[in-house]
Amino acid sequence: MTHVLKIENLHVSVEDKPILRGVNLTMRHGETHALMGPNGSGKSTLGLVIAGHPGYEVTQGSITLDDADLLEMEADGRARAGIFMAFQRPITIPGVKMADFLRHAATNVRRPDRKEGEELIPMREFRKELKDKMEQLRMDPEFARRYVNDGFSGGEMKRAEILQLAMLQPKFAILDETDSGLDADAVRLASASIAEIGREKMGLLIITHHDKLLEHNPPQYTHVMLGGRIVETGGVELAHELYSQGYERIRAAYPEAERANQEMLNEELADASLASE
Amino acid sequence: MLLRANIPQSLAITTFNNSKSMSTNLMDTTNEIGEINKYDFRTETTAVFKARKGLDRNIVAQISEMKREPDWMRDFRLKSLDIFNSKPMPNWGGDIAVDFQDIYYYLKPADHQSRTWDDVPQEIKDTFDKLGIPQAERKFLTGVKAKFDSEVVYGSLKEDLAAQGVIFLDTDSALRDHPDLFREYFGKIIPPTDNKFAALNSAVWSGGSFIYVPPGVKIEFPLQAYFRINAENMGQFERTLIIVDEGASIHYVEGCTAPMYSSESLHSAVVEIICKRGSRCRYTTIQNWANNIYNLVTKRAMAYQDATMEWVDGNLGSKLTMKYPAVYMMEPGARGEILSIAFASKGQHQDAGAKLVHAAPHTTGQIISKSISKNGGRSSYRGLVRVEKNAKHSKCNVVCDALILDPQSRSDTYPYIEILEQDVSIGHEASVSRIGEEQLFYLMSRGMSEAEASTMIVNGFIEPLVKELPMEYAVEMNRLIQLQMEGSVG
């Protein structure tokens, strides 16, 4: 069966102020979608809402994964159902080792019915798998012993997110600016890593301002977001157009969405500001 | 000789054991440790002698007589009782609502120490089985001592330690077997005049550990004590004395899990440590008292030239804990380090901290305190750093971090700094934080339930302490935190 992630007429608010205003998006397993758009258009918000961030209120619409209603689930339920988001700004968890964190995460995702305190993946098995994945991603084994995102450079944080993606093997993954803050080599490595993990084995939603990541992971679909809506959808050529020519054409073509976008920027409700609180 | 009237159907048990510290990853053993809940049980048993309730000269003299102590100790106890009676209750810290006349001060379950495992009463063995102690002994331990209420019942000391001249006894036996060594150091670091509860302990003390490590002897594995109070209204007044001779080293570990009782209970211990020139001592405590227990403990070490004293002190449970492990750095080059953690939940007040006294030049001190408050619990850091005149070039750093899990809970910091010398370097940092929504979401987005995510964050917060513990204690600490956290969210 092909897994399907379906978002219909999604409206989302924060403190009664609308951010998403009717998003429609359908992704199938094995597809790569690019989500582009100017600052404040709601790209990260869409990702966070799919992942189940409690700071957003869904006022209308639905998100389903196959037959499951994701809006009925907390973030942990969605992760166990097969949703993963690589965050733009991953959070530091002092004192918690990457290996311990990943072992709990991998166990929960693979055994969705697991309760707190129940058995984890056997240590030996887990260590081997982690070691293999880290080698594949050319990561220093020392990484597993460091505390989650504690003192990580920007590049290390992004690579840690990719490692999590590799370990959790979700049905659908959202990559939020996984290429930002990385130099050209690091972007190439990140892109190659995603390709190696096997983007054909999942549905990918890549949120990006740039096209480097897309070069290595060419999308079948490109969506443009403005003012909390997907205003245009095209193929890979749309991504290249936006990258080389910017959003002038889009802004002009959708004046109402552009007004909403400016409003949200002014209200500082833009996705990034909430996510970084 | 023995009174058999008024025998309570209750039990207290203490084991002392020695174990190797292991560097194996924690996750390897988490599942083998099993449920901490299994410790919360009582076993029917028979105490052989129990002094009547209350505190007066007759009771104190009777305790001394039952133990067949020398006159000087009886006199010391009686003098201590007078000091106790003359001192007012402390007017700081927490509320101490204890009726001193409603407590049993002495309970002796057997009339002599068992020599071998076969001598240990069956009921106690049953309890050991439930605790998993015999298995643990086979697996890890290099020696086992068990404690039954106020007396050590069973004890064995590995031959290699004895061969090196190490003395590891319960304190009562040490008084009997090593009277001169005992008298030279007992009550010298913490005299009965020090505070009201030190005076109380000095009057009615029973049990505890006595350790002497001869010059140059380095004990490679942690010596462990594992004990619990179990008799209702049974005060525990153990007395520990550790002498680490020149160039010697030791890591002593004590831990407690206590079953629940409905009426008030008092634990008031005294721990005295002498670290002679160039020696090293680490004293690690994990305490998880039942919620009705007042835990009022005085712990102090004197560190001489180039000696290092480290206290690692973890406090969970109890109604009120007041405990401030101290290091007096008496000669140049002495070091004192205190790592303190407190977890206060509903109805609990942890007033914990540390005390460092720089009494000589070129001494170095460090305090790291971590406290967690949840479900209306209150934790306070109370610390003193004192630098005496002429303690030049001394350095001291204090870090205290508090984590508050909900708006009903409370955290306070009372740092006292007394510096009588100019040429010193003193640092103090304090932080208070809450579990962030973003941290919870990040972990939940990786499949952790909210409860599991909270536990993980709290365990991470105390990781700097836990990583200093021997492996079994680290595992248990994480399990205890998990139990404390259960039901705290959702």
Q: How would you summarize this macromolecular structure in one to three sentences?
A:
The complex is a heterodimer of chains A (277) and B (490). Chain A has 277 residues and is α/β, with parallel strands linked by helices.
Write the layout of secondary structure elements.
The complex is a heterodimer of chains A (277) and B (490).
Chain A lengths: L3 E11 L2 E12 L3 E5 L6 H9 L5 E9 L2 E2 L5 H7 L1 E4 L6 E5 H13 L12 H14 L10 E2 L5 H15 L3 E5 L7 H14 L5 E5 L4 H5 L4 E6 L2 E6 L1 H10 L2 H6 L1 H12 L4 H5 L2
Parallel strand pairs in A: 3-10, 3-11, 6-9, 9-10
Antiparallel strand pairs in A: 1-2, 1-4, 4-5, 7-8, 11-12
Helix pairs in contact in A: 5-6
Chain B lengths: L12 E7 L10 H4 L15 E2 L6 H10 L4 H16 L20 E2 L13 H10 L1 H7 L1 E8 L2 E5 L3 H5 L3 E4 H7 L1 H7 L10 H9 L4 E5 L9 E6 L10 E6 L4 E9 L7 E3 L2 E6 L4 E10 L3 E11 L4 E10 L2 E4 L2 E4 L5 E10 L4 E10 L5 E10 L4 E10 L6 E11 L5 E10 L4 E11 L2 H8 L5 H17 L4 H15 L5
Parallel strand pairs in B: 7-9, 8-10, 9-12, 10-13, 11-14, 12-14, 13-15, 14-16, 14-17, 15-18, 16-19, 17-19, 18-20, 19-21, 20-22, 21-23, 22-24
Antiparallel strand pairs in B: 1-4, 1-8, 2-3, 4-5, 6-7
Helix pairs in contact in B: 2-3, 3-9, 7-8, 10-11, 11-12
